[in-house]
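Example 3.
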Amino acid sequence: MRFMMLVKHAEKCDTPPKEFMDAMARIAEEAVKAGTMVVSGGLAPTGKSTRVRLSRGQVAAIDGPFSEAKEVVGGFAILEFKSKEEAIEGALQFMELHRKFWPGWEGETEVRQVLGPEAFAPEA
Amino acid sequence: MTTAHPHSAIDAVWRIESARIIAGLTRIVRDVGLAEELAQDALVAALEQWPESGIPDNPGAWLMATAKHRAIDMFRRNKLLERKHEELGRELKTQQESAVADFDIANDDDIGDDLLRLVFISCHPVLSTEARVALTLRLLGGLTTEEIARAFLVPEPTVAQRIVRAKRTLTEAHVPFEVPRGPELAGRLSSVLEVIYLVFNEGYSATAGDDWMRPALCEDALRLGRILAELAPNEPEVHGLVALMEIQASRAHARTGPAGEPILLLEQDRGRWDHMLIRRGLAAFERAEELGGALGPYALQAAIAACHARAGTAAETDWKRIAALYDVLSRLMPSPVVELNRAVAVAMAFGPAAGLELADALASEPSLKAYHLLPSVRADFLLKLGRLTEARAEFERAASLTRNARERELLLNRAGACAAQARPQ
């Protein structure tokens, strides 16, 4: 089963301390060694991003930053686990890293299952 | 840390950590069965304590330390192996003194080595294949006896017995806890890869109505393969096997039609192929290639699978390359099925006459006597050569050999089409 981890935090965010970046690199390496890592990435700040929105029949592109947003997605990972419980356990350990190595950081990791093609397959 | 469902969270931790704990313990106590018992003791302690105290920050380290304490208690009680006791005591003391025990890099390498040793032990040739599969899934896959039984459609007591006997055999044979070296390595590694691929194929053969633990075996095999690839990164056949499994798994949802009938690769809807798995498979294959040397059997099969995976449509397939790869494979790993696949590739690359020549050579092959794809493939070649009467007979023969009703219908339709075409206008 595949799960996407969406790491969200407040728009205004300092640069992470070196100890945190080192710990992140280690945990990513562990996931590769455990055969669970599919892909992971950090996202550029919203100041450099664009939202393309469809609303009231109009499509428009709006450039960031988005100061009205309370939380933005800062990074993501897709991992393969046997169960949702394992995915949650992984996310808990990931957040523990933040607590230990990035004091003062607040935010959350949302754990969402990535639906496979079987979810869209026609009924047999 | 609070968690809504402590018991299932502990199960999750166990599945993630158990292999490394058992591996580390095996190095210390030198007995796989004992190591597993000690690890299970630690799990019991966790189930008793964590619901109240919460799951520790580093659950793996907690379980390992608990198991090691149990081992020390056991040695004290037995008054055996005093030297082991000292080793153990020393080791625990060092860990307590280490400030960053959580992320100790050296410790990490040790565990990697131990895991690799555990892989080789659980796939030891002194064990029967079934025993190797059960033990590997249990110790490295973290599957329970019940899960293994459901996955392989055997009674639970049978699996339990297999595992008990396997551990006893390893103890009695004094199998050393080490990574094989030199000339021994290739054969032992081949035994490990065989176990993993067997698990994969068992999962791949599962059909729609089966217990979900069965297709889940593909994921278990893939995970074991990927872990092994990180533990033994310089072994090209490991990457080859991983590549093969990733690419095969990518077709899982395109392989069967609505009536459960198998859909041949060339007729599959490629939009249903999992492209994330294909990318991973191609990356794994690259790692095999980068290591240099001639491609082994798994890497060759992966190369063939990769040719198909890279083609956006069946028409874009590089048949000449596939035919060349099958040439090498048929010399390295001769088998009638490989030869039949080679015939198909050769026909696509060089014309039906060339393919037919190879297929005809298989006519008297005993293992293919009841294999419907042989006459089906021959029929296809004969049809393309305009030999309609013979093609029809072969389609009908293929129809009589297949057990799938829908497939039989399709083959009979093709036979009928030949008959219609052959009729004088």
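Confidence is low (pLDDT under 50) at residues 97-106 of chain B. The two ends of chain B are 82 Å apart (CA to CA).
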